Amino acid sequence: MRPGPHCKGPGGPSELRRVSTCGHLRPSGACRSKLPKAWAWKLPGLRRGPKFEAVRALDSQDLADIDLNACAWTPAQRATVIAARTGRPVVDRDGLRRWLNTLSFPVAYVDFEFDTGVAIPRFPGVRPYERLPFQWSIHVQSEPGGELLESAPFLHLTDDDPRELFLRSLLDALPASGSIVAHSVAAEKGDLAQYEQPTWLGGRYRRAVRRLANRWADTIALTRPHFAHPDCDGSWSLKALAPAILGRAYEDLELRDGMAAVRAWRRAVDGDAAPAERSALLADCGRDTELLHEIVEALRAQVENRRELSDPPPRIEPCKPTRSSLSGASSPRCPEASACSRACSAGSCPTPDRSARASRP
C-alpha cells in the first residue's frame, strides 16, 4: 500500500491536516524515501470530494503534477502547486500590502504557551482538559522600522494557580493601544476567552479581555492567502515559514515545539525539572515572537521591493482567452478567464500552461 490520506490520520476531514507520527514519513523513513520531495498529500485544505479523488488518482504523487484545471482549487492550493512547479515563491504583493496596512503602531508580537489540559485539573475552577496558560512572550515595535523591544517575559514555575498572574502581567505588559500580532491567533484568543467564564476567577477580568478583542492581527491571514513557498510543503506554520523566509527557526534551541515546552513546564512545577529547562522555556517562547516580527518585516520589504525572497521566477507564458473560447467554443481557454487578464498583466497567471512548466532546481 502506497502512502496516502491514511497517513494523515484515520478519522474525519479535520485529521487530514495531521501528518502521521509513525515515523515512516520522516526524511529518513521507509515511506518518505519513496515519495517525491513535494508530496501531493501535503496540499493544504484537502477534504473528501473531487479534489481528494484528483490527488488520490495522481500516479506520480508529486504536488507539481496536480492538474489545476481539474477542480475548483482555492487560491492557497493553486499557489502551493505553482510554487512546487517553479521552485519559486508565489507572492501576492497587493494582498500583503492590504494586511500590513491594517497594523496600528505600536505593534505587540505575542505568543502564549499553555498546558493542553488533564482529566483531573490541578486547580479549582478549571474543567477537565481546559487549557491552562503558563507563559507569554511579548516583543513591541513602536513605529514602522523601529527597534524591537522585548518586555520582561512571564513564566510561572511554582505549583500554585498561574491564571491570575498570567493575565495581570500580560495586561500590564501590552501597550495601551495598537495591534497585537500572533500566529494562528485563535489559540491566544481561546486562552483569553476562558477568563470570561464565571468559573475562571469569577469572571472579573471579562471586560479587560474583551477590550483586546478588536486589536488582534493574525499572521496566518497575512501568509496563507498571499504567500506560498516551495520549501513550506503546503504549510504556513512558523516552523515552515521561518526557514523558508528567514533561513533560521528553532534549530539551535533545546525545546523546539509546543508539546516539548508543556512537558518541561509540568516537570518544573512538579519539582523534577533541571535548572537549564527554565532558560530553555524562555528561549523557545521568545523565539516565536522574534520570528513573527522578522517574517512580517521580511514580507514588508518584499512588498516595498527592498528585499527579494528569491530570484525572479521563470517566465511563464500567460493564457490568453481567444474570441472562440470566450464564446464557449471548444478551443483552449483559461479557466480563470474572468480574473486572468489582471493576473496575467502582473506576470503571474494563475493557470500557467503545463508546457511552460519550469524545471525545479
Structure, explained:
By secondary structure, this protein is α/β, with parallel strands linked by helices. Helices cover 33% and strands 9% of the residues. It has helices at residues 50-56, 75-86, 93-101, 163-173, 186-193, 206-210, 219-223, 238-246, 258-269, 276-303, 323-326, 337-345; strands spanning 90-91, 107-115, 132-141, 148-150, 154-155, 180-182, 216-218, 227-228. It starts with 49 loop residues before the first helix and ends in a 16-residue tail after the last helix. The model is unreliable at 10-17 and 310-361 (pLDDT under 50).
Short description:
The chain contains twelve helices and eight strands. It has 361 residues and is an alpha/beta fold. The two termini are 30 Å apart.
Feature tags:
6-stranded mixed β-sheet; 8 strands; 12 helices; two-stranded antiparallel ribbon; alpha/beta; 33% helix; single chain; globular
Biggest sheet overview: 6 strands, mixed
Query: Helicity level, as a percent range?
Result: 25-40%
Give the number of helices: 12
Distance between the termini: 30 Å
Structural class: alpha/beta
Mean pLDDT over the residues: 79
**Strands, count:** 8
N-to-C SSE string, H for helix and E for strand: HHEHEEEEHEHHEHEHHHHH
| Radius of gyration (Å) | 23 Å
Percentage of β-strand residues: 5-15%
Please, what is the oligomeric state? Answer: single chain
Low-pLDDT residue intervals, each spanning 5 or more residues: 10-17, 310-361
Gross morphology is globular
